[in-house]
What does this fold into?
Amino acid sequence: MIATDRIEVLDDRAVAAAIAEVIDAMEADLDLVVGSMEDCLVALIQSANGVSPRALREALRRAVSAVVRDTLARLCSQVELPMLPPDMSELARVCASSRCELVERPDPWLVGLEAFWDRFEVVAERTVVDTTLRWEVIKAARARLRNHLARVRALFRSACLYDELARSNEVDGDSRLRAVLGALGGERSEPSELGYDLAWHHVAVVADASPSLDALARCTTRHLLRVQAPDGGMWAWLGGPDKVPEGDLDGLIAALGSSDASVAFGEPAEGIAGFAVSHRQALEAGVIAVASKRAVRFADCRLLIAVLRDGDLAYEFVERELGELNHPIEPMRELRDTLRAYLEHGQRVAPTAAVVRRDRKTVEKHLRRAEQLLHHPVGERTDSVLIALRVGEILRHGH
It folds into this structure.
């Protein structure tokens, strides 16, 4: 418990330390916090919808617990988490299937928010004895969370709308594909036909499987249109009336970065022409995504894509830059892996050894052998050699 003499001047460190004390106490009382919020929300939902299904109540409790933990983490770190917690996504699915009015009405969110702050103030009163410091703690906490819960609500609403749209879209996927192919050819269609407005700002996405798009849809507040591609895989577009901020797109890629998902993004574009342009970019970036098994953006791999547009020239470029090092036998593959890791990690031996799981002496031996095959030091022509290594890997995968 924080006990102080009368504090005349409060600095940021004192307030931050007191907030940390309150957060610790809130986490210790988590069941009580969640229970009080859940009771308020259930009463409100029942007054509007009648008796709530058991599945809804169970999903609500898990979701409230997740939001409280997420909110306390936000108070600690002040770093916005990239996506909706999984338990909130599950509640969105249950709400959409049960037609619960938790989505559009603002009052459940206001009730839940007030229940959270009521509990926060009770815990702060018990934890921080000095009244001046306690008031500063409450003010600072509210300031830190000013936009956070509004963002959670927006993500939750988007997830609910996505689940509703996904169920309706399953009914007639063929007609949607025909409409999409027409739009890619410049034909306009009504928003009601696609469940999506071609006049919006778009980011096209190409994914290897539907689950990758399910995860993506829950990371954004934008509308998602998706269809089964004619040759397998999935095509999708994230759209909305507002321009896509650069940080949002980079955040989506970062959120998918550790999932081994082959997802490719085109660049933001507007209108029916942009719908097609962004899609073409995503298709080209998809070659890189599949070969590397990660999420990529067209703008981040323009040079690789340009080299790969002409297969014959790409092969010639790789052969010219790598020479014997491009031979498909296993010892050459090990040398290429070591050289690529070395160039991608600032030409430092220690990180390279960690990436390729070899000791330093082996890494240094590989690099000396690579220099012999390249006929120049590995520190020369680094950009061209690294591009050739990446392109060669894609070509060997048959893409």
